[in-house]
């Protein structure tokens, strides 16, 4: 049996294909099998990064933040939770959120392994980016420990949340990059579109930060006991948060105008419109929860939107560039070439 070469093995020509390197240790694994496994790993990484935000929201909204009073054990001398009349389900909700960190770690390690064994041809930048989910998950675990030890202090709870949307954004870029080409990164839209996107992404992060401040001033502290809150008027915090959202919407509208007028690639326009839909849904839910007095279920739906917000912004950004070779005979490459010619 001949040894496989180091050349890239490609799936049948089609837009959105995954390309992989042969594996000398798994010679029976063909390109399609490697591509399927890579897709499962990268999709699983993204979904688990979004999922832990939702499990964290469940912890907060059910007042289960101190259901496990210590870390890494749930109780002193007891690693797993125990059902009692006094604690109810709170220890299990909190412990479930901690357990999901293990799932994140498995996918983060798998992303690294797949990247270094099969995706090395995508470049050093892709390999460096593949480290971030694992590093970020480890950082989350450490901050989570201090959150418990310091009784859910909002100065730590907010950063603990904000890391997860950033990891979701990185995971989205990795996923888009997985399906894109293997060449050097280049703009796939007019430069003015990227000039609008950069401040849009920055304001989007500000929106998330201000959202955590609003939560830190509100009633959902994460525990039913006496927990420190942010010393700020909740009404003022909510209004500042809303102003940032309005600025974000204005920038998003400007981005859509630029993309449509320049006849930009379809992938970028589709991603931008998905971001519009998500932003509108978030705005509606935000006002509903405000006027209804922050009911837990409505707040949870708002957290679902927050979990998707950063990832969708990253999706738009990743679609403004391409790794397709300029001479690649694919629809994506032709769209990128056309937008370049329009400039």
Provide the residue-averaged pLDDT: 83
Strand content: under 5%
N- to C-terminal distance: 51 Å
Name the helicity range: 55-70%
Give helix and strand order, one letter per element, not per position: HHHHEHHHHEH
Backbone shape: flat
Q: Strand arrangement, largest sheet?
A: 1-2
Q: What is the CA-atom radius of gyration, in angstroms?
A: 22 Å
Strands, count: 2
The major β-sheet equals: 2 strands, antiparallel
Tally the helices. 9
Number of domains: 2
Q: Given the helix and strand composition, which structural class is it? A: mainly alpha
**Uncertain parts:** 1-15, 329-343
Condensed summary:
The protein has about 350 residues and is an all-alpha fold. The chain has helices at about 30-60, 90-120, 125-150, 155-180, 190-215, 235-260, 265-290, 295-320, 330-340; strands at about 185, 320.
Topology (elements, then pairings):
Blueprint: H1 31-61, H2 90-118, H3 124-149, H4 154-179, E1 186-187, H5 191-217, H6 234-261, H7 266-291, H8 296-319, E2 321-322, H9 331-342
Helix pairs in contact: 1-2, 1-4, 1-8, 2-3, 3-4, 4-5, 4-8, 5-6, 5-8, 6-7, 7-8
Q: Your description of this structure?
A:
With 343 residues, this protein is an all-alpha fold. It has two domains: 145 residues, no CATH class; 164 residues. Helices cover 67% and strands 1% of the residues. It contains nine helices and two strands; from the N terminus they run ααααβααααβα. Strands 1-2 form a two-stranded antiparallel ribbon. Helix 3 packs antiparallel against helix 4, helix 5 packs antiparallel against helix 8 and helix 6 runs antiparallel to helix 7. The radius of gyration is 22 Å and the shape is flat. The termini are far apart.
